[in-house]
Amino acid sequence: MRAANPLKLAGAALLSVLALGAAGYRADLPYDQVRATYETATSRWIDVQGARLHYTDQGSGPVVVMLHGSGADQGVFTAPAHLLAQRGYRVIALDLPGSGLSQAGPDTGFTIPDNTALLGAFLTALDLQPAALLGHSTGGQIAWTFALDAPDLAPRLILLAPTGQPTPSPLAWQIAALPVLGPMLKNVTPQIVVRQNLRDAVFDDSTITEAQVIRYHDLLLREGARDALFARMQAVSFARVKDLPCLHQPVLLLWGQEDIWLPPALGRDFEQALPAVTHISLPGTGHNLPEELAPERFADLVADWLTTTPAQAVSTPCAHHLTH
Fold it and tell me: Structure pTM?
C-alpha cells in the first residue's frame, strides 16, 4: 500500500467532521431492536471463541460456506443462497463478528488471522466439511487465507473480488486509521454516507433500493457494529500475498469490470498467482457482486462450476504456510 499523506488525510477528515457536524452524529441502535427486524426463519446462533455468531442455514447436500465483506452482512447472499439451496446445496452464510447480527466477544480480534481462527472454530463447532468456501471482498481474503492453512477444509474456493493484493485503501479506510480523527468520525454516519458508499460499490446505481440503504444503515448503527468495522479498517494486511502460489485448490474468481474499489487489474494479479484458477470478468458490474449480479446468474455460475470442477485433495500445507 502506498503511504498516505497524514496532513492531507487529517485535513479531509476535519472537513468531513465540520461539514457533517452534529447533524451527522448517529447513536447506536439497541441490538435487540435490530435483531427483531432482521432475524429470519433460516437464522441460527452459536457461541464460538466468546463471540455470539449469527448465520443462516438452508438446503441440504454439499456444504457451501459464504463470507461477506467489510461493512456488509450475510444478507447480501440472501437471493443467490436460496437459489443454490434449491439446486441441491446446503448453504451456510455467516455474519462475521460485529457484523450483521453477530456479536463480538470481549477478546474478539478483527485481523485476518483472528478471522481465520474463528472460521476454523466455527466449522469445527458445527462439524462441517465444506465442499467450497465462498467469500466476497474481505470475506474472500479470509477464505483464501484460511485455505492456505487448512486446505482440507477448503477443497474449492469461490472468490468474489477478494482483498489481499497490495493496493491503496479507500480514503475512508485511511482516515479510520488516524489516531484522533478516525475515532471522531466513527459515529458520524448519516444515511447519506451509506447511500453514497453503495453507489460507489455498484456500476448501475439505479439498482440500489431504499430497503437496501435502510438495512445497511440499521446494521451499521447496531450496538458494536461501528467499533468492529473500524477495527477491520485498521487491520488491513497484505502479508500472505506471497503465499498465493501455494493454493493448489481449484478457484473460481469473479470480478466486476467496473469495480472502482478493487480495480480489475487486481483480478489479473490473482489470476497470475493462483495455480488452478478460472477467472471470469463480469461486464457492467461493480464491486458489490453478491447484490448487483443477477441472483440467477450468480447461482448458475457457482453451481455449474461446482458441478464440473472436482475438489482438490490437499493433505499437507505448503512450506510457505509456516513462514508467516
Answer: 0.90
